[in-house]
Design brief:
The structure is a single chain. The chain is of the alpha+beta class and 321 residues long. The chain folds into two domains: 157 residues, ph1033 like domains (ph1033 like fold); 130 residues, no CATH class. Strands 1, 2, 3, 4, 5, 6 and 7 form a seven-stranded mixed β-sheet that branches. Strands 8-9 form a two-stranded antiparallel ribbon. A hairpin with a 5-residue loop joins strand 10 and strand 11. Helix 7 packs across helix 8. The protein is globular. Pfam families: HNH_2.
């Protein structure tokens, strides 16, 4: 279990009632933000302290891994400058009867605040620039002790949480698919190709097969058992990119799932990357050697460009800032 601190002044009611965290991927100027990057390493069962109006008002238990999702419509004008696609984590929140004010206990908490990316100022005031901050176990223990007995059942519940699928991610893709069907500027044959490409089939798979001959991870080479998986996800790509053979890898269904949801990725030199939030025993059962370094071979220049996007915007791993 890991611990997190979320500042929710603008979006508290929407996120608490809706059962989620949502952040943009980057700052307005397109610079990476550590407090947004942290979303990528939340795992089911993690505990989240919800900070609002100077108090820890609720505790959440993460119920999903992080995934791409459109900005919630209920946010309205909040964060009007945020980009539409951001990070989302499903969370079950419980409002606290004893909503402590950390500033009142800053002398106790101060020794445990991190020197960098702290959720609080040294005087106990909040930081407007913070969204999701990592909380070390010592600081978490102090906060839990201050809140009291009502945290105990939440800690127990966090140990047995069952991960929830990112079903609204599929829903957003279906919305895009509907827009393609309704677009009079797209020829009917192209509409079919674009929709089939979402499933890793059709013309897109044929184009990927001109570059790739097997699953890079498992070695399976029978095309019947392979999916053409997008490096830059179908939902994020332009129509041209959705059909570009260099935007794809041939993967077995289980490896496609791991790659699509960001549990694995690849460096441009072919080095396999395993997300720190991935369940490693499951990966091993899916055919990934977790005990040694794996290199899957060279990529084309075009593939490298799309893999850059995957590492930047899909892989569940905090990028160095």
């Amino acid at each position: 279990m890991r611990y997190w601190w979320v500042n929710q002044n603008q979006t508290y009611r929407h996120e608490i009632d809706g059962g989620y965290l949502w952040s943009p991927k980057k700052n307005k100027n397109q610079a990476r933000n550590q407090f947004y990057e942290n979303m990528r390493e939340v795992s089911p069962g993690d505990l989240i302290f919800s900070f609002k109006d100077t108090r820890i008002a609720a505790i959440g238990i993460a119920e999903s891994y992080c995934y791409e999702s459109p900005k919630p419509v209920e946010f309205g004008t909040a964060g009007s400058y945020w980009e539409n696609i951001g990070w989302k984590v499903k969370v079950r929140f419980t409002p606290l009867a004893n909503s402590i004010r950390p500033k009142d206990h800053i002398a106790l908490l101060l020794p445990f605040l991190p020197k960098k990316y702290s959720p609080l100022q040294p005087n106990g005031n909040g930081l407007q620039s913070v969204y999701l901050a990592h909380v070390n176990s010592d600081l978490a223990s102090e906060l839990i002790n201050l809140i009291g007995a009502e945290v105990s059942p939440l800690l127990d519940a966090a140990q047995t949480v069952q991960p929830i699928a990112a079903d609204d991610l599929d829903f957003s893709e279906l919305q895009i698919e509907s827009e393609i069907y309704l677009d009079p500027a797209i020829r009917e044959t192209e509409k079919l190709a674009l929709v089939r490409a979402r499933l890793g089939q059709g013309i897109f798979k044929e184009r990927v097969r001109k570059i790739e001959t097997r699953c890079r991870v498992t070695g399976v080479d029978n095309p019947v058992h392979l999916i053409a998986s997008h490096c830059k996800p179908w939902r994020d790509a332009s129509n041209e990119e959705r059909l570009d053979g260099e935007n794809g890898l041939l993967l077995t269904p289980s490896i496609d799932h791991l790659f699509d949801r960001g549990f694995i990725g690849f460096e441009n030199n072919g080095q396999l990357i395993i997300s720190p939030v991935a369940h490693r025993p499951s990966l091993q059962r899916m055919g990934i050697d977790i005990n040694s370094t794996t290199n899957v071979g060279a990529f084309t220049q075009g593939q490298k460009s799309f893999l850059d996007f995957h590492r930047e915007s899909v892989l569940l791993q905090v990028r160095a800032i």
